[in-house]
Amino acid sequence: MLQFAEYLLTAALIFVGLALVTALVLLSSRGRVTRAKTRKSAVTRAKVAVGAGAGGGVGAGSEVHVDDEAVNGADGAGVVKLDQVETMGATAQVVDGADGVDGVDGAVLDAEPDTGSSSSQAHAGRAPGRSVSVGVFSTGFTIVALILVTAYLGVRIALTGHGPFTNMHEFAVSFAWGILVAYLVTYWRFKLRMLSLVVLPVVGSLLVYALSIDSGVEPLVPALQNNLLLSLHVGFAILSYGAACVSFGAAIIYLIWPKLKLKTPRMRFDEVGYKAAVVAFPLMTAMILLGALWANIAWGRYWGWDPKETAALVTWLLYAAFLHARVVRGWRGTKAAWLLVIGFAAVIFAYFGNYFFGGLHSYQ
Amino acid sequence: MTERLVDADRPGSPERLDDGDEPQLTIGDFFHRLYQVTYSKTIGLIIILVLAVFVLIGVIIVQAPAGTYADPAQTEQFMSQMRAKYGGWASVFEALGLFHVFTSVAFLVVVVALAISITGCTTHRIPQLWQNFRHPRVKVSDRFFTAARYQATVPTGLNPEQTLQLAEDKLKSQHYRVIKSDGASLYVDKYSWGGFGTVAAHLSFIIILAAFLITGLFGYEAILNVPVGGDGVAVGQGTALSVKATSFNAAYDSNGRPLDYVSHVIVTDGDKVVAEQDVRVNEPITMGKWAFHQDSFGLAVDVAVTDGSGASVFTGSVPQQWTSNDGTLAIGRFRLEDRGVTVDVLAAQSGVTNSELAPGQVAFLIYRDGQTEATDMNTVDQSETVTIGDLDFTFERESQYTGIKVRTDPGTIWMWIGSILLVSGMTVTFTCRHRRVWVKATDSALLLASADKEDSGLRANFDEIVEQANRWYPSVGRSASVTTEADDS
Prior knowledge:
The structure holds two protein chains of two kinds. Chain A is mainly α. Chain A is built from 13 helices and no strands. Helix content of chain A is 77%, strand content 0%. In chain A, α7 crosses α9. Chain A starts with a helix and ends in a 7-residue tail after the last helix. In chain A, 54% of the residues are buried. Chain B is α+β, with helices and mostly antiparallel strands. Chain B has four domains: 28-122, no CATH class; 148-192 and 434-488, Alpha-D-phosphohexomutase, C-terminal domain (TATA-Binding Protein, 2-Layer Sandwich); 198-217 and 410-428; 220-408, no CATH class. In chain B, 36% of the residues lie in helices and 33% in strands. In chain B, strands 2-3-19-20-1-21 form a six-stranded antiparallel beta sheet. The chains are: A mainly alpha, B alpha+beta.
């Protein structure tokens, strides 16, 4: 049964890979389309200029709209008929409004690469073209991966009778699950698919790691035999770390944004990084406090400077510093992004601490 | 020089400030400056980061177990382990106090500084929060409606009074606090008390630090090595409590992985049994302010000591709770107070084949008061007696002991109070953010503006109000124009 369940995990890894490849294709196509758009834009400007000369009545404003339409993916010929010019202003405005401000850049990115000719239609809310489905596939692959990981964890829960948090294999898979959930919630809320470029490699790495270590079902050691607190304490850790990974992803995209040439405003990633940290921080607090509560029951003290709980405190302090720096010092942009990167490094440090910390959390 | 003196004598001259080469500070100014330091956000941030560095060091570098530095022998044993681990750096770490970071003076100074900083920041912020809560700024200039971060114009087709009245009614129905600033303007807000969440969260941190302090000062814990099936062990601390274990069981799976540690424990108060249960790692006895936890277990040696006349001097089970440096011997100790003698009982460590002692054999080492070396030593097999000095030592049998941690901690309750306050404060801070909108009615339009920080949540809230406002005045049939700073960027 367990062996069969591990196929689910392998399949999940494949789907994560597919989602990542799709996102990379979208990104690389975006650069290609941007260059193509630049060429088309020049062509269109030339044609409009010719038309203006012939018709003698097209104003500068109209020319700008025509240009915008062309930039956002003119049709195959790259020619805009003069009789459409008057009606295009509204379309161009919709595109401008949608671009980044409403967070639909992911859709824009998805729409562009596959069939450049239909992207203007997608922007204008007309008939969605094939190109849109490429982006849908990326999200779809991620959702399938989440379903598979959930199913795998469900099988383990059914087999063991407790939460899948008792060894590094289970915790790695749960961590991956938490990241996928946090990413999809963030995507649903902000529509920033580019986060997957950072988040999915982390998920993939965790799944590879989980598949490479002992995945056998073992009985709980005495200290972990508290189903309620085990589920709550580690459950909060997983959700918190998942949100922290998303904030890390947003920070990385923010830092490399100039190289990616994304349409989404850079500060959008700054804000999403902050929002994810705002979610991660209270969850992390709950995790630590529930850990203290449990330690008080199991070990007879609520805090003992055990290496892993201390590492969690370091992480918590870093996120506290980030939030304070942002709220009271107005830290945004690069400085804030680096703090989030350091914060997630602390998360990873605390997570893998079992291997070199020792202490009471050494459940491998 | 002369010129300077002349200038200095002139009232109002800048040089007069240099009199005495120091600025003149009153006592009040001094304390005010000091107070400013306590609520400096920059200093607070630096303290948090310094604390993080300290804690990080405590994670990376092995920390000495509690009580190590109180015993020179334990200190030396710990340091020999550290020298093996860190080489020459061990002495450097030791000199810097890095093996006991969390009890170092520097760490305590940082923690106290953090507590002062939090207190200063919170105290400084309360008047501002109170002002926003009770007396918000309700009047803004007309220019504000065209210069604010979030702004919108909703066509109404009504006169200003009708426009404003409708807006007031609708916003009140959505649980906004509505304050009229003048005949044509409103100030509306929601969650004006949300900022107090940060006060609660910061206050909670002080309470948690206080809990640590209370635990350190007034808490008590000890490990009672209770012989299984033997006599009870007194808790002490001015109580008549005693802990007795009637059984202990350690269960393992086929791979040697532990499954369960359970002691059947009876707690008596004088002669009265006040608690009795199977104590497991996650199932301690809690009894009033006292708690009894399963902590450890091990082998014990049952020993009887008599004097030359056959009178009993000592009978009991001696827990083998220490291990020799080379790991081959288990060591227990008991004291014969009347004789001024301490006795170490040595046995082969379980599973060790190269021990000096054979299984089923123990050695008695006698330390007389004032002597640092053992004065006598003898080895004996089970059920046999050996005479050392004027005492007869009998190794009766091997048995077990269970380590029960007994604890009372008045800081714990404050820890939970602080924790609840922390979670509550954070929840309020992050979910109930203060939202403010200024509203102005003109001849045929409703102007809305907000100066809140750039944030998608606040922006969405503002957009929602504008969208609703469009529906309040349906007869006009036109949409509002909304402008935010984000659009411009």
